[in-house]
From TrEMBL:
<dbReference type="Pfam" id="PF10090">
    <property type="entry name" value="HPTransfase"/>
</dbReference>
<protein>
    <submittedName>
        <fullName>Histidine phosphotransferase</fullName>
    </submittedName>
</protein>
<dbReference type="InterPro" id="IPR036890">
    <property type="entry name" value="HATPase_C_sf"/>
</dbReference>
<dbReference type="GO" id="GO:0016740">
    <property type="term" value="F:transferase activity"/>
</dbReference>
<keyword id="KW-0808">Transferase</keyword>
<feature type="domain" description="Histidine phosphotransferase ChpT C-terminal">
    <location>
        <begin position="81"/>
        <end position="202"/>
    </location>
</feature>
<dbReference type="InterPro" id="IPR018762">
    <property type="entry name" value="ChpT_C"/>
</dbReference>
Length: 213
């Protein structure tokens, strides 16, 4: 699978816009309600909804900045606590998801952090009915080892995402849904690294071994 950088960037932008549409739309709706509402109690409720939508929008933008973007504000090595904060915020409004972390290393190369965040996103999407998301990452001997396990009832995983991770997805079938996985595949190829996944009825395991650039 060969994908031009322009096409991939366009699809990643489409994915970002799709995921941002709901919280930004909620902000617009909240402002419209606030303009017409006179009851003090209902106005307070509107303010609470606006605050929640603004927080979700900010959290998602911060997440996508590092997961999809160049993240120029970070150095070559990124503190794993940065990734943890971003994923924690993404899950904060979903009480059906339980997060478990195993992060013995203090920092990882930026490419590994980017992969870890996208693995976490794929894992979260695989748990529409809730479940547990376990995230482990370690840096040793100039290699990053990453594992994300999503476990829950009736795992939802599009096989085309798996094909994109493996680099076997036909170029004509690339979409905004599979673009993040295609990006990870290209990143792994550039680093001479490896990606893999294992799918079962009640679990999805994503793994990566990535040499330092």
């Amino acid at each position: 699978m060969t994908t031009s950088s322009i096409e991939l960037a366009s699809l990643l932008c489409s994915r970002l816009c799709h995921d941002m549409l709901s919280p930004v739309g909620a902000l617009t709706n909240g402002l419209e309600l606030l303009a017409d509402e006179k009851d003090p109690e209902m106005r307070q409720r509107c303010f609470e909804l606006l605050d929640q939508s603004a927080r979700i929008s900010t959290d998602k933008l911060k997440f996508f900045r590092l997961a999809f973007g160049a993240a120029g504000g970070f150095g070559e090595m990124v503190a794993v606590s940065e990734a943890k904060v971003l994923v924690d915020a993404l899950v904060a409004n979903n009480p059906r998801i339980t997060l478990a972390w195993a992060l013995p290393s203090d920092s990882l190369p930026k490419a590994a952090i980017k992969t870890l965040l996208n693995f976490a996103l794929i894992g979260l999407e695989a748990l529409p009915r809730g479940g547990t998301l376990e995230i482990a990452a370690e840096y040793r001997d100039n290699h990053s080892e990453l594992v994300v396990r999503a476990a829950g009832p009736r795992i939802a995983f599009d096989r085309s995402v798996g094909a994109a991770l493996e680099g076997t997805l036909p170029e004509g079938e690339l979409s905004s849904r599979t673009a993040p996985a295609a990006m990870l595949y290209q990143l792994a190829v550039e680093l001479s690294g490896q990606l893999q996944y294992v799918l079962a009825e009640d679990a999805l395991v994503l793994g990566a071994v990535l040499p330092r650039a």
